[in-house]
Amino acid sequence: MKNIKIAVVQMEVVAGKPDVNCEKIIQKIKEARENKNDVVIFPEMAVPGYLLGDEWENNGLIKKLMEINEKIREESEAITVVWGNVWADFDNVGEDGRVRKYNAALIASNKKWLDNEVFEGHTFKTLLPKYREFDDERHFYSMQKLADEKQVDIKELLKPFEVDVKGQKVKIGLSLCEDMWDKNYFNKPIEILVKNGAEIVVNISASPWTWQKNNKRHQIVKNILSKNPVNFVYCNNVGIQNNGKNIFLFDGSSTIYNPDGTLMIAAKPYKEENLEIRLEMEASFAKASEGYNFVSEENDTKELYDGLIYGLRKFFEQNNLKKAVIGISGGIDSAVSASLLVMALGKQKVLGINMPSKFNADLTRNAAKKLAENLGIEYKVIPIQNGVDLTMKELENNGFKVSDFVMENIQARDRGSRILAGVAAAVGGVMINNSNKTEMALGYTTLYGDMNGAICPIGDLYKWEVYELAKYINKISQKELIPEEIFEIVPSAELSDKQDVTMGKGDPIIYPYHDKLVRAFVEFRKDLSEILEWYDKKTIETEMHLEKGLIEKYFKNREEFKKDLEEKWKLYKLSYFKRIQAPPIIAVSRRAFGYDLRESQNGVYVAI
Amino acid sequence: MKNIKIAVVQMEVVAGKPDVNCEKIIQKIKEARENKNDVVIFPEMAVPGYLLGDEWENNGLIKKLMEINEKIREESEAITVVWGNVWADFDNVGEDGRVRKYNAALIASNKKWLDNEVFEGHTFKTLLPKYREFDDERHFYSMQKLADEKQVDIKELLKPFEVDVKGQKVKIGLSLCEDMWDKNYFNKPIEILVKNGAEIVVNISASPWTWQKNNKRHQIVKNILSKNPVNFVYCNNVGIQNNGKNIFLFDGSSTIYNPDGTLMIAAKPYKEENLEIRLEMEASFAKASEGYNFVSEENDTKELYDGLIYGLRKFFEQNNLKKAVIGISGGIDSAVSASLLVMALGKQKVLGINMPSKFNADLTRNAAKKLAENLGIEYKVIPIQNGVDLTMKELENNGFKVSDFVMENIQARDRGSRILAGVAAAVGGVMINNSNKTEMALGYTTLYGDMNGAICPIGDLYKWEVYELAKYINKISQKELIPEEIFEIVPSAELSDKQDVTMGKGDPIIYPYHDKLVRAFVEFRKDLSEILEWYDKKTIETEMHLEKGLIEKYFKNREEFKKDLEEKWKLYKLSYFKRIQAPPIIAVSRRAFGYDLRESQNGVYVAI
Question: Nearest 5°: phi and psi at B206?
């Protein structure tokens, strides 16, 4: 019976810092060797990181990365090392006319490249994702393109590597991330690898967290293995990576599967961790000889909370940020943002500023103060009325008429760009944007006002999720960290008499419905005609997961419903001019504003 | 001898407005029929526009576009119509798991779809660009993927359509945009079409203007036709389209080529225009029977100016913007921005605001006033000193220490977010961002200050180009529109005593060198090691097109040179946090900041 001991290294990959990552890889190889592993496996793009934007065009970097590949090979004395990095073909160009690059899995043993009779020491990703934040087709050449160019069948190119494990020959099939998510592709790389003799399939990934992704993955592995029963090793990195507009959470959750698709062992999310296990193979079937650690069924809100905390902590760490300066209004959004920051960074790194104008009620001002006390953060009250009055006077003295609406935005900008930006600069800190997804979608924000910030922690959360998170925060802190009154105050911008919270007057948004409407637009990519059809068929409450009776409560008839629907669609499309200039948002939904959802400024077109 | 009369419709395509575009197409078909054309040709994606972001995922829109295809077919009575639109296969998915979509050329005649024995009434784009602003692979399935999936040779799929022209059979090969830019691809779609019998090749494009693109295109067509001599028809749209962060200029410049690659007739840039011509074919060779109109050799600055004016005009028109509110400082950047706006929109749509603090010299203040008078625009002087003093006092009263550097940025934000944003809101206008590319690259800008704006007209221009444009503006206006002193004042932010223009003290940027350095980084994708190598080999002045002796003048030795190089690289990389929130930039270079150059916020990695 063949047997092989493998180590899966769930490492934190720091994007754009190959020197840091390389050093860690070398350290981990040493540890794996000391622990008598036969094979040690690192994630996809473990050397450079995955989300580098167009830095892939930097030939100096690419040369450096190729040098690092040789350096890692040199470290493979008495062990087989599998890792992800770019592999460049300097003699050929990609379809962009630049040096041709592949998203590659590399494999070396005893300081030599292993050979699979097609490639020496490397193989390439076949399925290149290019939806959402993924841009693999932009940067890399695929195995399928190479097959087309060489006019060979792709089956001739996807071969396992034979590894010598103390005299035993074990065939390892290497695949990269999307290669296992093959549902929408005509190529099935894993299947080809197994048909070509792979006894173990390794998938190295750089796969960001999304809702229920891990459960989906387990199902997919099960389906694949049902036809091709071999051990399956999934190695994913942890860390955060970004594309400017969005910050993605890499949760790791590396897993080794039994040949029947059940879980043998799994790593924890967001933790650097090694999985080490001995696999025993008989014929084409192997089973675990040690260690069981099933993925726990986690509560959605806990997963969300854990991800956001991790993302905030890493963002501040990687960008070397010293202090978060946050406006605290007494509303739920700023309360949740501030609490997350304190929990991620510690209270000494958070500075809260309350900036009342004459429209802010004692109710919210007191709530803000209480929150700051509960959090134990430094807190200042800096009223904006003098600034607003000065601006009004200067504009009016120059003949400009200031309407109530313009005056509302002057307040928001006075807070964001005069006070908060000034304080942040003075203390060497950064501002926090407290917008939620629903108001960002409908443009219920002021550019250069509450849209300001270096990061937007809850920008991918609907209002209901903000409340859920608030409840969860109070639950785990085992006290009323976020004061009860903040849950009860009607959501309001408090920018005019019309938004008097003490009279229960708030935002012109019906959150229980519009939250879900925005979700239908943005995440489920539904358009007006589909939603109107749901209304007509009376299935809308089921389809959109609305409370029963809610639609009837707010809309007397079809005309009213349709009017609101079109109005919200218009707000969504027209307010994109603000999102163009929005700060980075931590992506946690199926589609976040930023470079996850790509928009054009084309006004509105109603296709009903 | 076969002969055929064709009309090439260089229309303005409005992105995201299929109803508007469809109406125009139908009108143009009627005109072409009345003029006795046999074939009428429209650009790529003439119905929906090309840069729609992820709106391609809107199934309601896709259904509507497919309906419009049938509507256009219905209009093809007694004429053959060729146009670009999406073609959706609702029975299959793309690699993103959504409805499969192709970037298609459609062809109908006498109300019927023409058949090429492979497809009925349509063919698909083979080469999908995915560099710079292009995202075809994200949205569309390629002909090559279809061939792979069907396991047929692509030559079996790329067939010309036979058109009946008064009893003559003429075979027209349809291609789309990138299909002719085949240099970096192993597939050569035009060649395949000709080998498969095409007597005329039509290329429908949605191709934005870039430097010298049209000359490159003429050369490429010549190369292709040298091996495959047939008439070649290039139909491109005019208009502007955007991806949020960048506005692209579609210049049209549609051209019909003789089979030897010489130009037969060409349309003007940025104008809606029809090219109508009768082609006569003998064997596989045709020549023009009428009309010659060669593309003129245009001056680079004129081309740049024409593009920017067109882009500004269309941006204001398409977004229904009433007024441009612009800060005028007395410097060259705001002078050029303001002049462009007046020339694009007319003086009554431009409002100039000068916002001096105590650091602004009479020299610049007078120059600003003179510029405004020359332009004939409404002009106000609103000093910011009261606002700045108030902010300083409020911060200091709350215990925050305001350094000189912080005070500089307070001034910039007071201008941008308090005064200018307030005025823009009051008059129902939008702010203009006056940043140039070099300062944007090096982060010599203030977020929520001079970075504010709805559009950035000169954000893709280096400082030297700003001066060139200023001279050109004065030349064509036949007077000193931009006052001579503005050319002479040293570039300066005037935010402190250290930046006193009257003492010749200005920005910490050596524009004659750093302009070119930024260009090397951003456009030519050079990294530090390559530039240092030029320095060492003493080829840097030639490679970077620098004035002779310039490097020696500014850098005493290698150490000084290298120190500055690394410092600028760091500024370029670290200041990306500002560009994330920058307004839309009109793209005119080989690489513009925005979604043309995609960046990640990963700090600095120096690969020397």
Answer: -130, 85
